[in-house]
């Protein structure tokens, strides 16, 4: 046996700040700037969004020694779509970013399941020990959810005001993500600690196997 132990998971509050902090900064900045500089609010908030996302990436690199793959994907898309928003002075790009991100997640999960390299298990296998069948169920559920979220973002973007879209990040998107995660918690907890190997029936003591 080895004495090496896996690194402890990040504190929940720290992880929440990394995951949700940049979006929260974007929303708060937009609402504050909307009062004084309504024509520039979305662009100034987008600039802060880019800076906050890059700061989260740097924080992870310095404090944990590595950057979570999800944060890398998010960071790349924030820089690309946020940069286009600022360069072309067109708010459409920052509004499209969530749609592209959600659909990217859905496609990546679906492809990984097809090639039997479940990306959901790769991301969270250090947190939970689950049978492969359960990992597949969870992955497919989240893939469908991400498709739904992409379609929802497009619906809000095309039918509501910019201010409503911005604030929907906090009052619609985050609650839906937390709710869906909570709905999947029972199956995760039920099978946590089980694996295909552990589910095999142990042989009684002294029983020999026939060739």
Quick overview:
By secondary structure, the chain is mostly helical. It folds into two domains: 12-88, no CATH class; 91-196, no CATH class. 76% of the residues lie in helices and 0% in strands.
Would you write up a description of this structure?
- With 211 residues, the protein is mainly α.
- The protein folds into two domains: 12-88, no CATH class; 91-196, no CATH class.
- The chain is built from eight helices and no strands.
- It is globular.
- Residues 1-11 and 197-211 have low confidence and may be disordered.
Rg (C-alpha, Å): 21 Å
Estimate nothing, just give the exact number of structural domains: 2
Q: Overall mean pLDDT score?
A: 85
Sheet bearing the most strands, described? Answer: none
Q: Which stretches are low in confidence, meaning pLDDT under 50 for 5 or more residues running?
A: 1-11, 197-211
Gross morphology is globular
Order of helices and strands: HHHHHHHH
Please state the structural category: mainly alpha
- State the helical fraction: over 70%
Number of helices: 8
CA distance, first residue to last residue: 31 Å
Strand content: under 5%
Total strands: the figure is: 0
Describe the structure using short key phrases.
211 residues; mainly alpha; 2 domains; globular; disordered N terminus
Write the topology of this structure.
Blueprint: H1 12-36, H2 41-64, H3 69-88, H4 92-114, H5 119-124, H6 132-159, H7 162-191, H8 196-199
Helix pairs in contact: 1-2, 1-7, 2-3, 3-4, 4-6, 6-7
